[in-house]
Design brief:
The chain is α/β, with parallel strands linked by helices. It contains 14 helices and 13 strands. The strands form four sheets. A seven-stranded parallel beta sheet has the order 3-2-1-4-5-6-11, with helices on both faces. The protein has a two-stranded parallel sheet with strand order 7-10.
Length: 344
């Protein structure tokens, strides 16, 4: 089949491009710059263009399927929802002459409640694609578990970098992680689907866990001893500031994802099990362990980065109540904070 994959340099897009090419499909992959292709593949027709700049998009030949896997999480702006929607409209206008049907990967989230900007944009993008008149298959997923996944990398970074496991209410929300391998199977299975209208499938693995339990599971698998330390409840903007210090590598995208922690992201219907009966998603522990053993990233501990000195000099944090006497005493026990501070 002739297939277009946008977002081909992303975590999911790149994996899908290589899978489809290896399975004998004629794959065209869109990237912003041909000079920045992460994993070149001679079987793939790489093309350059920016979905937000229609004039930069090359004319397409006939296509059977077009995957929309573009997501602006890492963009540093306050109007990424507008850009997400504009990208979807430009995508529709670009692919329509090719005759391709659409496959879109969105996000799980509760219905009929005010959503975070991240989840709201995911659902809005799906609605725009579905209203195009082009047959659209939309998958909604929670955490994707795999090497290089942003969600997995944040779990890994927090578990390895912090000498304790933070405990606060936002980490108590449930999610339903899905292994990358299983997500790719769902995406590939749509190649045989034809129809009309807009179909939506909620997909997830067999296990539901809170975000805190994902941190616990990673520590267990990595044999890290992490005592739980209760963190005072503070405004989200304070937690965002802490995130900037603790995981600066993922701060921009992490900030948007963190706003979604207040929502449960679990599957609420079984439509995907009926439509794709051959797909039996992997257990969470197996998926997490595979991602962990494959991951090559390294996160230095906070103490190596002189984290405390910077943290204690930030007025927003010191005046927020986050660094309470109780928390400081707990940190002292866990990480020998007193010794570290006296040496700085």
């Amino acid at each position: 089949m002739k297939i277009l994959v946008t977002g081909a340099n992303g975590f999911v897009g790149n994996a899908l491009v290589h899978l489809l090419a290896e399975n004998g499909h004629e794959v065209t992959a869109l990237v912003r710059s041909l000079n920045n292709i992460k994993h070149p593949n001679h079987k793939v027709n790489w093309i350059e263009g920016d979905i937000l700049k229609p004039a930069s998009l090359p004319k397409l030949k006939k296509m059977d399927k077009a995957y929309f896997l573009i997501h602006g999480l890492k963009e540093v702006n306050d109007i990424f929802e507008y850009h997400e929607s504009l990208g979807a409209v430009n995508f529709i206008n670009w692919i329509r002459p090719s005759g391709a049907s659409i496959v879109y990967l969105g996000g799980l989230g509760p219905k009929d409640v005010p959503l975070s900007p991240h989840l709201r944009s995911r659902h809005l993008t799906g609605a725009i694609l579905g209203a195009s008149g082009i047959f659209t298959t939309e998958f909604r997923a929670s955490v994707v578990m795999g090497e290089g996944s942003l969600s997995f990398e944040m779990i890994k970074a927090l578990s390895e970098r912090l000498p304790f496991r933070p405990q606060f209410s936002l980490l108590n929300q449930p999610c339903q992680p899905l292994a990358l391998h299983d997500l790719l199977r769902y995406l590939e299975s749509t190649l045989e689907r034809n129809g009309k209208g807009h179909e939506i499938f909620e997909i997830g693995g067999p296990d539901i866990a809170t975000y805190g339990e994902l941190l616990d599971l990673y520590s267990e698998l990595a044999k890290l001893k992490r005592k739980k330390v209760k963190i005072p409840e503070v405004e989200l903007k304070v937690m965002m500031k802490v995130m900037e210090y603790t995981i600066p590598e993922h701060a921009n995208a992490g900030r948007k994802l963190a706003e979604s922690l207040e929502h449960s992201t679990v599957v609420t219907n079984s439509d995907a099990l009926v439509a794709f009966p051959d797909i039996k998603p992997q257990a969470l522990k197996m998926a997490m362990d595979l991602a962990r053993s494959s991951s090559k990233t390294h996160y230095a501990t906070l103490w190596e980065k002189d984290f405390l000195r910077v943290l204690l000099s930030d007025k927003l944090l010191t005046q927020s109540g986050l660094l309470s006497p109780d928390l400081m005493r707990s940190l002292e026990k866990v990480a020998k904070l007193k010794d570290i501070l006296t040496k700085r």
